[in-house]
Amino acid sequence: xxETIEGLIGVPAPLLFGQLLLGLINGAFYAMLSLGLxxxxxxxxxxxxxxxxxxxxxxxxxxxxxxxxxxGYWWAMLLSPLIVGFSGIILEKVFISRxxxxxxxxxxxxxxxxxxxxxxxFRNEFGSSGLPYRIPAELSxxxxxxxxxxxxxRGWVVVAALFFCIATWLIIExxxxxxxxxxxxxxxxxxxxxxxxxxxxxxxxYGAGVALAAVxxxxxxxxxxxxxxxxxxxxxxVFAVVVIGGMGSILGSIVTxxxxxxxxxxxxxxxxxxxxxxxxxxxxxxxxxxxAGLFGKA
Amino acid sequence: MSSETTITAIPTGVVGKQSPGIWGFNGSQLIAxxxxxxxxxxxxxxxxxxxxxxxxxxxxxxxxxNLLIGYVGLMxxxxxxxxxxxxxxxxxxxxxxxxxxxxxxxxxxxxxAGMGVAFGWLAIRRQGIYFAMITMALAQxxxxxxxxxxxxxxxxxxxxxxxxxxxxxxxxxSDMAMYWxxxxxxxxxxxxxxxxxxxxxxxxxxxxxxxxxxxTSLGYRTDDYKLVAFILSCGLAGVAGAVKTLVFGIATLTxxxxxxxxxxxxxxxxxxxxxxFGPLIGAGVVVGMQNYLAELGAWVTVIQGGxxxxxxxxxxxxxxxxxxxxxxxxx
Amino acid sequence: MxxxxxxxxxxxxxxxxxxxxxxxxxxxxIKIGVLNDMSGPYRDISGPYGVACTKQAVAEFGMQGFxxxxxxxxxQNKPDVGAGLARQWYDQGVDLILDVPTSSVGLAVSQVAKExxxxxxxxxxxxxxxxxxxxxxxxxxxxxxxYMLAKSTGSAMVRAGGDSWFFLTADYAxxxxxxxxxxxFVRAAGGExxxxxxxxxxxxxxxxxxxxxxxxxxxKVIGMANAGADTINTIKQAAEFGITRxxxxxxxxxxxxxxxxxxxxxxAQGLVLTESFYWDLNERxxxxxRRLLPHLNGAYPNMASIANYSATLHFLxxxxxxxxxxxxxxxxxxxxxxxxxxxxxxxxxAGSIRVDGRKLCPSYLFEVKxxxxxxxxxxxxxxxxxxxxxxxxxxxxxxxxxxxxx
Lengths: 298, 331, 406
Fold this sequence. Notes:
The structure holds three protein chains of three kinds. Chain A has helices spanning 2-9, 13-44, 51-69, 73-94, 104-126, 152-174, 176-186, 188-193, 198-220, 230-245, 250-270, 278-289, and strands at 142-144, 149-151. Chain A is mainly alpha-helical. Chain A has one domain (20-229). Chain A has a two-stranded antiparallel ribbon. The model of chain A is unreliable at 1-5 (pLDDT under 50). In chain B, helix 6 (175-197) packs antiparallel against helix 9. In chain B, 69% of the residues lie in helices and 1% in strands. Chain B has one domain (24-327): ABC transporter involved in vitamin B12 uptake, BtuC. The radius of gyration of chain B is 19 Å and the shape is globular. Chain B has a two-stranded antiparallel ribbon with strand order 1-2. By secondary structure, chain B is mostly helical. By secondary structure, chain C is of the alpha/beta class. Chain C has 15 helices and 15 strands. In chain C, helix 5 packs parallel to helix 6. At the B-C interface, helix 1, helix 2, helix 5, helix 11 and helix 13 of B face helix 1, strand 2, helix 3 and helix 4 of C.
């Protein structure tokens, strides 16, 4: 069977499976970040340009907890999203909440500015070459899958990302709170009239979206370089993912995120030079065929 | 939850009477225009000519951007692609093909406009935030292309580009000669943008900005208008990039990078979206800041971010818009 | 409106963009401008540390009949900002511009220096064009370039037993140059190149796919033809995939002590890299490091930051030798004098500057220690091999430099 595949496509099968799996891991980050963007956009109608910086903060807070308070990876997994999410709540209260009556683009500009400030402050404080963060002992090591050597931590990333994605989806689609959220997305005034505190819900939603970015940051800290610009490099790709998926559906952003990760992984085998642009090319094709995005409402 | 306010926050109440004036400039704008021309005349003797030239290049770039955001309501987050590519092409034309400066600049503008055709065709399918994200993603592709393409010189850029001889016989090597060329290009671009805005075409553009469905119902094919505006803006951005390349003799990745797209947004926002003189003032502030802060050290990005935040929260009209509001004139 | 225009002009003047009157610097003061990256990705390599090293050199040189003033600015990795500042500085009486990382800015400033006939010492760019096709009589390239990195890592590594290579290359000119040069030296030394993969720059953060491909080639050495965050990500992920644990060596083609510090020894151990300076190399390097440490805010010097120290000392010696007035008069003459004098300082020992502007010094191949081997702060490297100064750089006649008469 493996030989057949190899004969068909001219690439060793183990390599192919390996890349599929690695693509899935990359997709996990795309999915978590675009999910956070979609959650925020759904209720606030703002594209959160600060998302990359908040992803970076997630990783940095994990480092700070370890370096300054001696708290390890699992504490970081719990505390970092809370801390970063709380900082997001403050940002929303102080800055973003002033813009809801204006054009969406002002939200974009404001969050872009906030992102620049955060990135600049971190660079001044921590330099640019990055900080060390190690894989927790429980997750280090690797499994031999036969066709490839699979670090346990990578498996954990996929599992954790799937967990958070599905949990978010369940909360929004299946719980009462989620029902309020969806209702407020459609008709905020009406929901308010039913006695639900919509502004507070908006604030908490922003905090939750930011916390998702921070979770992704903590997941990334042991395997990617923890430096102030780590988020800004990723965020433009994530925006393309969001355009492809269309921001209409939560499930859509999850599926698109994982799917594009796999596509990118495969490109790395067949045509590595194009792996950076493949997502943008897909974006152009989707725009031509389905301007609202794969899962978007027209 | 959706909001209907358009991106230009200038209340139309302060606009005063629309006297036709010359080329669509009203009285106060004419005064400002004359002051601007005088300032252009004396600036190189008071200030550093290269600094003023750089400022003018960015001002022209910001004018091009303002044409889109201020008058059509389209926010492009990928304008660096046209600016930078215009610069690369002009640099290549001047250095490798040995074209004269005016031809190099035209080449830069044509490439910008040509890219505008392709990008615009894709991007105008979506509006608002999507438009911004799509232009940004496409510009990112251009950036990747420029990193790898052999003719751009990758990280080194195209260096030591000769300024050449204007029309084949006027040497541009001295800064003053170059300055007058830049000033003339700037004034042509500046007045040209204004002329477009006050043409019947420009009126339709503004109608699209205010209410697109209604414009469509009046029988205008709004997508065509938006595309033409986009192409014009990209072409002008290409010209600005080309001129900048000739001034400095270099074309590098900085000008196609995403942060350049952000900077032109900042310039226009600081100066005042949808104001005529805003882009010039905004460019002055941002370029001046980069020069000045360079000696302060590490806080450039932080302060730029701070200005973004301050403008969005407190000065949505920008400097020129606020002044115009103060004196009840439209500038 | 008129108000704004005037205020902009006034601000412009206040910002010091064109103070013609100020252009006349004091006749007996030598001004050194350190132009580098204070806020971007290269900050930790030199940035504030490069400035501190320059000031230390000035302090050690002392008062020898003229004053020395050091100013610095952030070029933000923008060539137009860098070239603009350089022009302004030279016009305002700056006698030497120093550092200038990022090849595009480094080359742009070189043009300005030539135009203004002022001295320029680059210690931060990697492009070998500075002493090749783009060489200028006013430019000295003090530190590493792609050729030297490739040669040291490529040949010395093969000599140390790493004779089969796989390259992980950033897909742009810098990466290509490193890969091409290193591969040539590997083959010349009797090694074999088993393959390479070119990944998109600068958008790649996940290198695991490429590492898996590299491993499948069964090469003994994975050469990383990249820099900065890319290198760090590659090393992190190679450690995660257990690649180094199973005997494959990672060779970083451009990496600094600060990067090793950022990774931590646990992750970086076994890594092979080239630098021209290591603080614990000999008695003199330890001495100069001891003197510098109080000014470096906890960090240790690397070859890029301390090159500013070495270059400043040599520059000041040349100024003293020819007199302040003559030094200010012509950058070309000043650089010619620097080329005529042998260099000697605690950081790089004895050396010289070639006619094409290339400063010569030995390059060293280091291996990063394991956490158990490391005994103190920044005790990170052990020496694997040395390439003597005469062989470390591209031969004079191969660079296409117009200053070299063939």
